[in-house]
Specification:
317 residues; four-stranded antiparallel β-sheet; 50% strand; protein transport; 0% helix; mainly beta; Methylamine Dehydrogenase, Chain H; WD40_PAC1; WD40_repeat_CS; WD repeat
Length: 317
């Protein structure tokens, strides 16, 4: 399966919602602590080497996350370590990019997520404890959501309700928001330690997963959240990212500081159904293709991006 070697440490990887062979990778120099960043746009190709870089964009600070526009096939949004949010058009050469830059967050922007139903807006989550709502055609953010008491590591839209999103924070809470309401509509004290990631089930819009420094993944039903539906144990260190499959209701992918990527079926007793140990440093970014069932990608601090079919060895050629 294809492997791409980046010059910097990988932070995030996202498949294009328009082209089954295209993905974007967010990277940061010196493990994101100090230095530059780079966004790579990669295309999968038959035969060796299996992946080619179509364009790259350099930034003066770390790139922690990236997402594709749901309305323009060439447009990317990037979360930058200097607190900025930058828009890139991959159809234009690097000197013509970024096409937009927003500077509002007071600290690092850690995640970005494009609205999959409205397709006209996106969310950013920041270490300044806030989430911001943006639109491409607005010169400034539409709204700031400020309730969390510590860094917000991820904010992600509900896959069916265009006004609803969830946020995961270092204050150990998962919050549910409706942009039409003045404050959060639900607060779930999901873990006793920092929550690093969350994601919605793509087939049941009331079910979410959270991952934490406590090494667990928990699955929640917002209709009855006093007790989680499932607690998934198997990672040896903090679980950095959790992602529901776009094709299978019960399947969850995760990656961890234990350097592994895991697959889980949260509905069965022996939930761990796959473990991949191809990374040699922290595994921090994972995605599953919407367009090709079973196609996965991961990236980590070993500066490598792997793309593979579920059930295959990512290191196999």
């Amino acid at each position: 399966m294809p492997v791409f070697k980046a010059p910097f440490n990988g932070y995030s990887v996202k498949f294009s919602p328009f082209y089954e062979s295209r993905l974007a990778v967010a990277t940061a120099q010196n493990f994101g602590i100090l230095g530059n960043g780079r966004i790579h746009v990669l295309d999968l190709s038959p035969g060796a080497p299996g992946v080619t870089e179509t364009v790259a964009f350099d930034t003066s600070d770390a790139v922690y996350d990236v997402c594709w526009s749901e309305s323009h096939d060439s447009v990317l949004v990037a979360a930058i370590g200097d607190g900025s949010v930058k828009i890139y058009d991959t159809a234009l050469p690097p000197p013509s990019n970024p096409i937009r830059s927003f500077q509002e967050h007071g600290r690092e922007v850690h995640s970005v997520d494009y609205n999959p139903t409205r397709r006209d807006s996106f969310l950013t989550a920041s270490w300044d404890d806030t989430v911001k709502l943006w639109a491409m055609d607005r010169p400034a953010s539409i709204r700031t959501f400020k309730e969390h008491a510590y860094c917000v590591y991820q904010a992600i839209w509900n896959p069916k309700h265009g006004d609803v999103f969830a946020s995961a924070s270092g204050d150990c809470t998962l919050r549910i928001w409706d942009v039409r309401e003045p404050g959060s509509t639900m607060i779930i004290p999901a873990h006793d330690f920092e929550i690093l990631s969350c994601d919605w089930n793509k087939y049941d819009d009331c079910i979410l997963a959270t991952s934490s420094v406590d090494k667990t993944i928990k699955v929640w039903d917002v209709r009855s959240y006093r007790v989680p539906l499932a607690v998934l144990n198997g990672h040896g260190y903090a679980v950095r990212k959790v992602k529901f499959s776009p094709h299978r209701r019960n399947l969850i992918a995760s990656c961890s500081y234990d350097m592994t990527v895991c697959l889980w079926d949260y509905m069965v007793e022996d939930a761990l159904v796959g473990r991949y140990d191809h990374h040699t440093e922290f595994a921090v970014g994972i995605d599953m293709s919407v367009l090709v069932e079973g196609l996965m990608a991961s990236t980590g601090w070993d500066e490598l991006v792997y793309v593979w079919q579920q059930g295959m060895d990512p290191r196999a050629s």
